[in-house]
Write a structure and sequence with these properties.
Transmembrane segments (chain A): 12-30
Strand content of chain A: under 5%
Number of helices of chain B: 8
Order of helices and strands of chain B: HHHHHHHH
Structural class of chain A: mainly alpha
Largest interface: A-B, 38 and 39 residues
Helix content of chain B: over 70%
Number of strands of chain B: 0
Keywords (chain A): Cell inner membrane, Cell membrane, Cytochrome c-type biogenesis, Membrane, Transmembrane, Transmembrane helix, Transport
Number of domains of chain B: 1
Family (chain A): Belongs to the CcmD/CycX/HelD family.
Shape of chain B: globular
Order of helices and strands of chain A: H
Number of strands of chain A: 0
InterPro entries (chain A): Haem_export_protD_CcmD
Membrane topology (chain A): Single-pass membrane protein
Number of helices of chain A: 1
Oligomer: heterodimer
Strand content of chain B: under 5%
């Protein structure tokens, strides 16, 4: 098994396609996780507020 | 009396608490499966021989075709979830629909962009207004319209209803996307996946990376969909608590 990373004259089309795919996947993952973390923290904060300050 | 009779096997997911318990382990599991499949798929992508006609651009097919499959599949999920939200007014179905839209739009952008990057060297043009490309562009517009509608109306229930109706109308476009290459004379090639006629089917050496990458995309969508639904469940909870605090 040998890797072929030399796209020759098509490199100018092949690599931007893979780079764009990587960027979009990174965005999808980062945005989904950030959104989940943000709303989880918000819900937990409001839940703690609703219970009132602990004495 | 009052007992809930769960006939539908998916009913267990309709309860937000049960969904949160299920998705807590299912989301990372799908994410791990996606990661493993993506590594195997990329190894296959860069070890298969170049195509005698397409040369090295054939490697772009292994990221373009899965993106195109997911673009339509995610819209189907959006349509089904919108139907369930509209008819049964279930909050989780609405969250499932809302969570689909940005992911589906991203897959559609990828399908269009990678297709365009392949089209320039192979067809000699970045874009052509043929039935397949145009119907996929229309698919993107439905996703963007759905997102815009949800963001435009302050009343969340009204926004959800309007967006769900738009999503259902957009379902009409899905068979057009799928069969456009059969119904009209198109520059875009016909289906060559595992389900195509044997004379049009991909050689096995290219079918494997295509299959593995498609499963990687599908698993990634599964993981991200669950994460986004979880975020929307927490958001709903946070807003309900905020409302309760304001009323007190």
């Amino acid at each position: 098994m040998s890797f072929d990373f030399d796209a020759g004259k098509y490199a100018v089309y092949v690599w931007p396609a893979f780079a764009l795919t990587a960027v979009v996947f990174v965005w999808m993952i980062a945005d989904s996780l950030a959104s989940a973390r943000r709303w989880r923290a918000e819900a937990e904060r409001r839940q703690a507020d609703a219970k009132g300050p602990s004495k | 009396m009052g007992a809930h009779n769960n006939k539908n096997p998916f009913d267990f997911l309709a309860n937000p608490e049960r969904f949160m318990a299920f998705s807590r382990w299912a989301a990372p599991m799908f994410g791990a499966i996606a990661g493993v499949l993506a590594v195997i798929g990329l190894i296959l992508t860069f070890t298969v021989p170049e195509d005698y006609q397409q040369g090295d651009t054939v490697r772009m097919m292994f990221i373009h075709v899965p993106a195109a499959i997911l673009a339509s599949f995610v819209y189907l999920c959006l349509g089904i979830a919108s139907f369930l939200a509209l008819v049964f007014r279930h909050v989780l179905a609405d969250a499932a629909a809302q969570a689909c839209a940005p992911l589906g739009a991203a897959f559609t952008v990828l399908a269009l962009a990678t297709g365009s990057l392949w089209g320039k060297p192979m067809w000699g043009t970045w874009w052509v207004w043929d039935a397949r490309l145009t119907s996929v562009l229309v698919l993107l517009l439905f996703y963007l319209g759905y997102l815009a509608l949800r963001g435009a109306l302050d009343d969340e229930q009204k926004a959800a209803r309007a967006a769900a109706i738009l999503a259902l109308v957009g379902l009409i476009n899905l068979p057009i996307v799928k069969f456009s290459v059969d119904w009209w004379n198109s520059l875009h090639q016909g289906s060559s996946t595992l389900f195509a006629k044997s004379e049009n089917r991909l050689p096995v050496v290219y079918a494997w990376p295509m299959l593995v990458m498609s499963l990687a995309y599908l698993s990634a969508f599964g993981a991200l969909w669950l994460v986004r639904i979880r975020a929307l469940v927490w958001r709903r909870k946070a807003r309900a608590l905020a409302l309760k605090a304001a009323e007190a």
